[in-house]
Amino acid sequence: MIAKVLPLLMALLGLGAGIGGAMFLRPAQDGAEAEAVVSKAIPVSTEFVKLNNQFVIPIVGGGRVTSLVIMSLSVEVENGSTESIFAREPKLRDALLQVMFDHANAGGFNGVFTDGANLILLRQALLEAAQKIMGDIVKDVLIFDLSRQDN
Length: 151
Known about the structure:
This protein has about 150 residues and is an alpha+beta fold.
């Protein structure tokens, strides 16, 4: 008799423990409420500036262009800094393009070029280049379009 009841008791005990653990470990607020609390607590102090044109980076192999990488970028800046970005955009684009050429020459756009670790390195290098030109008003550089066209 105990052999028949014991599995049932174990299952009920496990079910109760699972429900109790889920209730204990559940988040205090759902995602929308948590986001609203964060938005109220931390004022938004940045804005995003989309750079006007795409970047085209040639990938060279065997003495010829084997692929083209096309990227679109936005720059996250302090509020009110949009005009500063557009005023110095040619110099900023030149610095960012040089980073992309270096990345391409190091093989960063070969193989699985969208690998997370690979893109982290690229984003960090782009941010450093943008901050050299624009200073600390630049908070981040965002890649929002990235494609490679093989010949």
